[in-house]
Design goal:
This protein is α+β, with helices and mostly antiparallel strands and 380 residues long. It contains seven helices and 20 strands. 17% of the residues lie in helices and 31% in strands. The strands form two sheets. The chain has a 16-stranded mixed sheet that branches. The mean pLDDT is 93.
Length: 380
């Protein structure tokens, strides 16, 4: 048998990239600025939920080095966090993960965060945790909490408050989800509305969402419709949105965080943007700018003026529609001609009291983006 040297296949025979203009799209996102009279913000693209082979179910995810190779080069992310399940149950894995997150910190280019995934069944659900500083050992899960006899909130929130951390639920309408029994808006400001491995958790029958008859869910777990994000907003929870990959999925899950200035000074700047819910979620490198007056997505404010939502979108391909959603009701649809759009929605039907507004972008090729809501308390 004669060995033949390996050669890369000719370029014309290679698989075409899913996002052929990704370098230009990433450059556009990095160059975009949100300007208000007081501040300027830029977008950091990241992933708040991704595993390595440290997790018991991470056999397809690769090593820590594979994680950073994807994050820093192929994915061109600005920040990421390793969220392995309880670090595989060993202190050594926690130590080497935290060491890696400092080793790959590249100021001005890439900011790894610290964190883990606390995995509990419904109704407490799976949550990822995020920290700006290393040294936070994982919070153990008791049998009582795992069985649902104790709520996670009173256990997890004091731990996060003491360590200046944050958390976010994921897969919320599955057996990994929750019925929204707990929330602290200062400690849990975001929810994973879409997951690259699985599906959308916006509402039943939403684009890419599960229904009892149509399941995208990778693990084939239970149907828990109480966990859809619309139910959380209807209960009054102030949750911004993010989307992450979990396992395996690549180039389809981006949590876009709006940080003050041209770049973060520290990791804490990224967490502060998350606390403010200055975040949007996307399955492609789509730019979404939704604001009311000087208030960005995620803001909460009171006014006597009729709200006017200003929307600007720069897509990566032709856009089918942009929906304006108020209090879980579709109130306006814009159908742009092309890959960009700019319009205003004036809420002439506003009544005294609280309302929230967000936009969802749907491209012709099926790519999606969601802004975080803006909450308005209106009085005449």
């Amino acid at each position: 048998m004669r060995l033949i040297p390996f050669r890369e296949p000719a370029a014309e025979t290679r698989v075409k990239p899913v996002h052929p203009d990704e370098p230009a799209n990433v450059a556009a996102i990095r160059g975009y600025r949100y300007r208000t009279p007081a501040k300027t913000y830029r977008i950091l693209r990241g992933d708040l939920h991704r595993h390595t082979d440290i997790s018991p179910d991470g056999i397809g995810d690769g090593s820590l080095l594979d994680f950073y190779r994807y994050a820093f080069t192929a994915g061109q992310f600005d920040y990421m966090v390793v969220t392995d399940h309880q670090y595989g149950g060993t202190e050594y894995n926690w130590w080497r993960t935290e060491k890696s997150e400092d080793a790959f910190l590249t100021r001005g280019r890439f900011w790894p965060l610290f964190g883990t995934e606390r995995s509990l069944p419904y109704p407490n659900g799976h949550r990822n945790t995020f920290f700006a500083q290393r040294g936070n050992r994982e919070l153990p899960i008791s049998r009582e909490e795992n069985a649902g006899n104790l709520n996670t909130g009173p256990i997890l929130y004091p731990y996060l408050r003491q360590r200046n951390g944050l958390t976010s639920s994921h897969s919320t309408a599955s057996d990994q989800g929750t019925d929204w029994r707990d929330n602290d808006p200062q400690l849990e400001p975001l929810v994973e509305i879409y997951q690259g491995l699985n599906s959308s958790y916006e509402y039943e029958n939403a684009p890419r969402a599960d229904t009892p008859e149509r399941r995208y869910y990778h693990h084939g777990e239970g149907w828990r419709p109480a966990g859809f994000v619309w139910n959380a907003w209807a209960k009054g929870l102030k949750l911004g949105v993010q989307t992450s990959s979990d396992h395996i999925a690549t180039h389809d899950s981006y949590t876009c965080v709006l940080v003050e200035g041209d770049q973060p000074r520290t990791r804490e700047d990224i967490l502060n943007a998350m606390r403010a819910r200055h975040v949007y979620a996307a399955t492609d490198n789509i730019i979404v700018d939704a604001r009311i007056g000087d208030h960005l997505m995620g803001d909460i404010f009171s006014t006597r003026d009729i709200p006017v939502l200003k929307v600007k979108v720069e897509g990566t391909g032709p856009i089918n529609r942009i929906e304006v959603i108020k209090n879980n009701t579709f109130v306006h649809t814009d159908r742009p001609q092309g890959s960009s759009a700019s319009f205003e929605y004036r809420d002439n039907d506003i009544r005294p009291g609280g309302s929230y507004y967000y936009v969802r972008v749907e491209q012709a090729a099926g790519q999606l983006a969601w802004s975080s809501p803006i909450w308005v308390e209106y009085s005449r």
